[in-house]
Structure formats: structure tokens, C-alpha cells
């Protein structure tokens, strides 16, 4: 049948198995000898081998035919390592499973009555079909075919399952051995875009919350999501972002956060003690520096766009012709407006940019006391004073809170107080995460102490001065308006105009706090509106050197409470003097004995020596008689 019906398929099968059969198995009627069932014994093997007998039973294992009648026990090993006798080699050939299936299907279609034995690599399929199948036996034939197909499918499924398990194990090993890889720039950009889209969509809903909000959702939930997204995208702490959301409206807050991600432009201040701004600009342009005037509000500032030489190492810089200084640092000195031949105190002067600007405006006249509590930072102050040619400055290292006791009577005082630095996040990004409520309150407490000391150091009777300028590089209300309002309550000062034409007004009300209405004259500067570091400036005018009476009473009470061991015994008689004598007698009877003894001892000390009665009626006429006797000898 294979020679006549399917010679091409047989050739293809022989090539796939890489075997050359010696005989044409099942091609003639001479194969009736080996059609008789031979004795076979089961040999265990590692692989799962399937055997189909003539009865349709499926068995696992490999079959090895017994020796021939001649007793020849010579075995030959094929390409697959299987052993077989010479008779077995004549009986069949080894084929791959796909080829074997093709051959079987072709034989079954042609309806051949004789089927040879086909051996494959993983299993042995042994078909014995009874000769001369009739139509009645068709059902049995179909059953046998189904059993054979199921057996082949079962073997293929087992192999596929083993392959899948091996692939899974291999994948797990790869996952374990595989190291973490950083995301690409494209992946990071995609994540950033998702954050931005969600932030914008959330803000649109919050701006028109009644119309666009989702049903069942509150405004608090939207704000919480927005705060979390902005904290993750801009890398801020939850505390600082909550503070900023209280200060700025939502659209302005986004602009502020974006502005902090970009550095401020480099600015320099011309030292008019040695050169003019026009000459300095021309010299720097010749060296390859691209610059422009800072603005109409400044006569000495220049903004640097780019430079082919380092700005901090040019010959002009080393000669002291200019100072590297931020634009916002020029504003406090302009608000102070120092005059010639004045005595001025710079309470926190390091690194010396404002001190040298004051000396420049005073044209090296008068006296400037440059003070700082950090001795290490004073080195840069001394260096800048020498480089810029300042000759009217004295450097001191004192605590600003003790300064009125050290030296006072100044015409003007500049206090650039230490702060949390929330206005210079572009210079110091660590402020985003390392500040909390305790840091803000600690700075505010120190600033309150310093501003009272600065006010006490000024002479209100100065002909040209009596001004104090308070400034910080922070935008927190606790460090700015709160401190200024505290100073207005504790000292005889008032707020005056800063003299600056631009800048936003300070807060007169913030959340549940209400400040003095004159705080409108203070100025706030932001990076997203003025393209400079965040800054706050307030200018005071002192109209009296006297400390308010309420403040004196509080200070005396604090000082008296500190050394006194029993303050109750001293404070008891004071409110009782205003009451009637009858009430005094009644209360004296109710007082315990030790308290009465102390009270009588105090009255005895106040009583004159010649007085016989302790009653107040006898004491009143005696006091004026003494004064009369003292006055008479003076007149005589």
C-alpha cells in the first residue's frame, strides 16, 4: 500500500527519521509471519511510552521483543539509543511522531487491511488489524481509531505540559536573576503628564465646584487629592504644601510652584564707590558677557543672561567694581534710604551685600555697625568690605537680642532676620521637605525678640532717622505679618510707606487672624510675579523712646515672679485696699493666722514710729504734717 498509494509520504517520513529501512514493511503478503503475536516483556524507561495493542488497550513503557527462534541475540543501537534485534529492524523502522501520525492517517483513509509496526522516539505504537474488515466491524474500527487518537493527544499534552512547566521555571529564574532597571526618560515623562492632567482637571472642577463636581463627593476630597498629587509631582512635604495652599489661590499656587523649579536670573550690583554702571557694563560686554539693566527701579543693578567668562572671577570683580547680589536683596536697603553722616546698625549683616550697599549710598560717610552672631560668616563680610573699598564700617560679633544693652542710639536699623527660607526654594530645594511647624514657630519667636531689640536700639529723637526696616526671605505669615503686628503692640512705632513702587500688599487678615490695617503698607515679592526671590519688607517709624506702660507692667511682673518664692502673700493686699473697711475686717477674720501675721508685719513696717494706733484714720493726717515740717526749713 505504501509503494502504490503513498510513496511520497513514505519517502518524506524516512528522511525525517534519518533512517533507511531495510525492508518494505507491510508492502506484500509475505509479512504474515510477523503478524502472529510475539512474546514481549516490558522494560522500564524514563520517558512516558504509549503502546496500543490490537484490543485497544493503552499501556506505558517500551517493549522489547524476545530473541528470535534462532537464538540470535545480536542487538543494534539506532540513532535514538534504542536497542533492537535484527528481526525487529526488518519488521519496522523508527519515525518521528508527526511523520507517524501522517502515515497512520493515510493508511486509515485508504482502508488497508494490513498495518505494519511503527516505532517512534518516545513511544511504540503497535497496531494489528484483523484481515478483511467487514462493514459490520466499522464501529469497532472507529472505536479503535478514537482510542488511538486519544492516546496520541494525551502524549502530546503531557509533553506540552512539561514544556510549559520548564518555560515557567526558566521565566521565574530570569525574573529572580534580572536586576532593577531605571525607567527611561520617556516613561518618566509619561508619568509626569498623567500627574499634570489630573492636577489640571481637579483644578477645573474646584474653580466651578457646584457645576462640575461629582455627586456624592465633597470639596475636601478634591483638595486632598490635589494636595497629594502636587506633593508627589513637585516633591513638597504635606505640611509646606498645606501652608502654601492657605496663602495662594489655586491657579497662582501652580505658578509659584513652577517658578521655584527654575533658578532666578543672575544679577550684580555696581559699586559706585569705584566705577559707574555704564563703564562696568561696557567692560563686561567686551569680555563676552550678555547683560541688561536690571529695571527702572534700580540705578545700579545689572542682569546677566550668559557669559563666556566666570562672573565671579573677572578682573572687575576682583577689583571690587561690582558685587554678586540678588535683586531682592537690593530692596531693603532702598527702603531704609540711609543718609550721609548717620549712625546705622546692620543687625544681621552676613555676607555683607546689604552693608556694602549702605556704605555706597552713604558715600563712605558716617558709621555703619555690621553685626552678626556667627563669627564664621563674618569672614566673608570682612573680605567684601575690603574688596569693595568700604571704610566707614565696624564689624562686631554679638547676639542681636542683647544689642540695645551693648550699644544704642542709632539713626536707622536694618534687620534681615533669620528665617525658614521658603522664599528661596529655587536656591535651596531642601526647604521643600525639611521644614515643619516647629521650625516656623522657632524662627517666629526669634524674630519677635530681634525686632524688639532693633526698635529699642533706634533713637526716636534723631533729626534725620528713627526708622527700622524689617525683612525676611520667607513668605510665611507667621514670620512676617504676625511679627510686625506683635511689634506694633509692644512698642511705640508705626508703619510707614517703604518707598517701593511695586510689590504686593501684606495681609491684614489671614484665616482666623486679624492684623493692624496699616499692614497694607508692607510689601511682598514673589518669584512668579516679580522674577526674584520671595521677600517681605516692612518699614517702621519710632515716635517715642518710652516703652508702653502695659509692656512695662508685664516685664516687671515677669521679673518679680522669677525671684519671689511666695508671690501670693505680696499680691493679696493690693486689690483689697479699694474695698471698704468692714469688708476688710470680715476677710481678716476668715484669713488663716500665718497670713494675718504677715499682713500685720507689713503694716507695721509702713507705720511711722510715733504712731500709737494701726488704724488708717490716724495715719492719714500724719503724712501731710511731715511734709509741712520738711517744707518750712527750706522756706526759712
From TrEMBL:
Biased composition regions of type Basic residues, renumbered to the chain: 625-636
This protein's record includes keyword Methyltransferase: yes
GO molecular function: RNA binding; rRNA (cytosine-C5-)-methyltransferase activity
Alphabetized InterPro entries for the sequence: MeTrfase_RsmB-F_NOP2_cat (IPR049560), MeTrfase_RsmB-F_NOP2_dom (IPR001678), Nop2p (IPR011023), RCMT (IPR023267), RCMT_NOP2 (IPR023273), RsmB-like_ferredoxin (IPR054728), RsmB/NOL1/NOP2-like_CS (IPR018314), SAM-dependent_MTases_sf (IPR029063)
Comp. bias regions, Polar residues: 21-31
Subcellular location: Nucleus, Nucleolus
CDD domains the record matches: AdoMet_MTases
Positions bound to S-adenosyl-L-methionine: 348-354, 372, 399, 416
Membership in a protein family: Belongs to the class I-like SAM-binding methyltransferase superfamily. RsmB/NOP family.
NCBIfam families per UniProt: nop2p (TIGR00446)
Name the record gives this protein: Putative ribosomal RNA methyltransferase NOP2
Amino acid at each position: 500500500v505504501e509503494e502504490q498509494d503513498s510513496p511520497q509520504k513514505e519517502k518524506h517520513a524516512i528522511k525525517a527519521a534519518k533512517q533507511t529501512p531495510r525492508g518494505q514493511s507491510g508492502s506484500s503478503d509475505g509479512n504474515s509471519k510477523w503478524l502472529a503475536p510475539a512474546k514481549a516483556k516490558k522494560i522500564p524507561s524514563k520517558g512516558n511510552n504509549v503502546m496500543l495493542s490490537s484490543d485497544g488497550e493503552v499501556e506505558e513503557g517500551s517493549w522489547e521483543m524476545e530473541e528470535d527462534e534462532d537464538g540470535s541475540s545480536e542487538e543494534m543501537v539506532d540513532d535514538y539509543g534504542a536497542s533492537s534485534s535484527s528481526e525487529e529492524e526488518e519488521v519496522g523502522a523508527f519515525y518521528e511522531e508527526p511523520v507517524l501520525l501522517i502515515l497512520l492517517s493515510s493508511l486509515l483513509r485508504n482502508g488497508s487491511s494490513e498495518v505494519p509496526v511503527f516505532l517512534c522516539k518516545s513511544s511504540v505504537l503497535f497496531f494489528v488489524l484483523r484481515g478483511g474488515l467487514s462493514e459490520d466491524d466499522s464501529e469497532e474500527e472507529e472505536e479503535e481509531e478514537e482510542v488511538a487518537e486519544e492516546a496520541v493527544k494525551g502524549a502530546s499534552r503531557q509533553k506540552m505540559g512539561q514544556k510549559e512547566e520548564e518555560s515557567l521555571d526558566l521565566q521565574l529564574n530570569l525574573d529572580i536573576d534580572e536586576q532593577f532597571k531605571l525607567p527611561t526618560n520617556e516613561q518618566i515623562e509619561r508619568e509626569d503628564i498623567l500627574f499634570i492632567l489630573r492636577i489640571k482637571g481637579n483644578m477645573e472642577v474646584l474653580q466651578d465646584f457646584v457645576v462640575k463636581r461629582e455627586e456624592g463627593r465633597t470639596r475636601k476630597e478634591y483638595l486632598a487629592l490635589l494636595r497629594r498629587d502636587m506633593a508627589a509631582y513637585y516633591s513638597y512635604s504635606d505640611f509646606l504644601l498645606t501652608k502654601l495652599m492657605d496663602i495662594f489661590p489655586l491657579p497662582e499656587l501652580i505658578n509659584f510652584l513652577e517658578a521655584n523649579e527654575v533658578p532666578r536670573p543672575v544679577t550684580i550690583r555696581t559699586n559706585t564707590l569705584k566705577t559707574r554702571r555704564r563703564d562696568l557694563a561696557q567692560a563686561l560686554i567686551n569680555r563676552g558677557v550678555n547683560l541688561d539693566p536690571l529695571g527702572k527701579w534700580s540705578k545700579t543693578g545689572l542682569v546677566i543672561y550668559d557669559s563666556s567668562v566666570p562672573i565671579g572671577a573677572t578682573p572687575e570683580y576682583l577689583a571690587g567694581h561690582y558685587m554678586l547680589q540678588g535683586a531682592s536683596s537690593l530692596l531693603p536697603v532702598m527702603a531704609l534710604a540711609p543718609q550721609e553722616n548717620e549712625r546705622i546698625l546692620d543687625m544681621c549683616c552676613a555676607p555683607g551685600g546689604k552693608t556694602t550697599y549702605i556704605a555706597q549710598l552713604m558715600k563712605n560717610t558716617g558709621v555703619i555697625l555690621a553685626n552678626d552672631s556667627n563669627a564664621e560668616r563674618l569672614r566673608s563680610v570682612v573680605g567684601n568690605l575690603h574688596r569693595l573699598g568700604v571704610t566707614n564700617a565696624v564689624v562686631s560679633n554679638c547676639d542681636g537680642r542683647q544689642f540695645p544693652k551693648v550699644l544704642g542710639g542709632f539713626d536707622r536699623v536694618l534687620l534681615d532676620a533669620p528665617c525658614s527660607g521658603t522664599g528661596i526654594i529655587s536656591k535651596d530645594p531642601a526647604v521643600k521637605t525639611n521644614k515643619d511647624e516647629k521650625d516656623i514657630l522657632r524662627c517666629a519667636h526669634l524674630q519677635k525678640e530681634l525686632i524688639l531689640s532693633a526698635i529699642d536700639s533706634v533713637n526716636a529723637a534723631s533729626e534725620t532717622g528713627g526708622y527700622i526696616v524689617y525683612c525676611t526671605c520667607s513668605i510665611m505669615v507667621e514670620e512676617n505679618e504676625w511679627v510686625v503686628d506683635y511689634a506694633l503692640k509692644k512698642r511705640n512705632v508705626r508703619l510707614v510707606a517703604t518707598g517701593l513702587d511695586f510689590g504686593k500688599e501684606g495681609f491684614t487678615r489671614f484665616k482666623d487672624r486679624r492684623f493692624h490695617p496699616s499692614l497694607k503698607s508692607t510689601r511682598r515679592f514673589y518669584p512668579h510675579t516679580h522674577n526674584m526671590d520671595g521677600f517681605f519688607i516692612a518699614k517702621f517709624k519710632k515716635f517715642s523712646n518710652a516703652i508702653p506702660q502695659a509692656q512695662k507692667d508685664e516685664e516687671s511682673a515677669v521679673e518679680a515672679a522669677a525671684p519671689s518664692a511666695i508671690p501670693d502673700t505680696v499680691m493679696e493686699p493690693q486689690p483689697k485696699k479699694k474695698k471698704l473697711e468692714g469688708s476688710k475686717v470680715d476677710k481678716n477674720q476668715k484669713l488663716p493666722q500665718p497670713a494675718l501675721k504677715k499682713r500685720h508685719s507689713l503694716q507695721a513696717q509702713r507705720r511711722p514710729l510715733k504712731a500709737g494706733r494701726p488704724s488708717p484714720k490716724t495715719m492719714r493726717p500724719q503724712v501731710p504734717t511731715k511734709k509741712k515740717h520738711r517744707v518750712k526749713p527750706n522756706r526759712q
